[in-house]
Amino acid sequence: MKTYSKLSIVTSLSLAGSSFLLGGDSVSEAVTRADAHAPIGVMGDHTHLAGEWMLSYRHMTMLMDQIYRGSDEVDGNMAETGYMVSPREMTMDMDMLGLMYAPTDRLTMLLMTSYKKNKMTMNNMAGVESMRMRSEGMGDTSVGGLYQFFRSDDANAHVSLAVSLPTGETGKKVISGMPAAVGRDQPFPMQLGSGTFDFIPGVTFNHFVNEHWSWGGQLKATLRTGENDDGYRLGDAVNLTVWGARNVGSSFSFSGRLNAKFWSGYEGFQSNGLFSVNGMMSLPADPSNSGGARVDGYFGVNYVSDYGLRVALEVGKSFWQDLDGVQLGMGWSGNLGLQYAF
Ligand SMILES: [Cu+2]
User: Fold this and answer.
1) Is residue 240 part of a domain?
2) How many angstroms is it from 341 CA to the middle of ligand 1?
3) CA of 212 to the centre of ligand 1 (A)
4) Domains: count for the chain
5) 184 pLDDT above the threshold of 70
6) Any domain includes 18
7) Near ion ligand 1, which residues have CB within 5 Å?
8) Is 17 left (phi over 0), alpha (psi -120 to 50) or beta?
9) Residue 26 covered by a domain
């Protein structure tokens, strides 16, 4: 009799335990539904259950093709920008490889590395294209952890902390073009990393309203710890994003997302930059033309297969920006991602 009652207590406890850990049917379903992961442009949006691994690949691209003074659009010639050389267009491409592993249901570890390709075309004083620059190489690498501090049947929340390691170069040189520029550092936005160890704390929330709808939000900051070897410091940044998603069928979801970003500008001058030659020379080499705020809108699709492979796409456009000084603003951006959990 005693044995029986002990056994039944143990059984009911372990049942209660497993339904707590898995969160019952509604959350184990939430793990496999297409909208269980946020739109692909959001990083560190989800945690894993104990023992799970996830490999991910992302490609992000951004086109910047309009100069702003504050929030006003201006033309790229010297009369409007005040500089002899102004950027005409910039594209930034980034490939990212990520690995996640959950030692416990609460804690998920994250490692992410990146490879970047930047292109910039420049205008001369008259606003005519006069020069092209390219930079390519490894970007920064981040290592961190996500800790889920809240979980219910239909919602969860976690805090995250990542350290960004300075694996991206900060002193890429101009190879050809304007004689005054050759051999000097390419301007700030063309560089591949921050050159410092940075901290990226964040908090993320997900709510699965019903079988069709979900929404979530993430607040994240990037805090720089000092000046890099090339004599300057990147600005700190705060990013707030909120999304809503709708499941369609069992393997697709569609999402809408708003992203607000506030960031401060570069401090200091590139030790081998064009600004040290002539402050009037090159717009993107002047640190006063950096920092600002902008709000972007994204539309996305997530697909999840029965065996754990996810494919997701997101396309976005900036619809409000207020930039410090004179700067190229964001036009549109796209994120493509593959994720495989096992
Ligand atoms: Cu994952």
Assistant:
1) yes
2) 7
3) 22
4) 1
5) yes
6) no
7) 54, 100
8) alpha
9) no
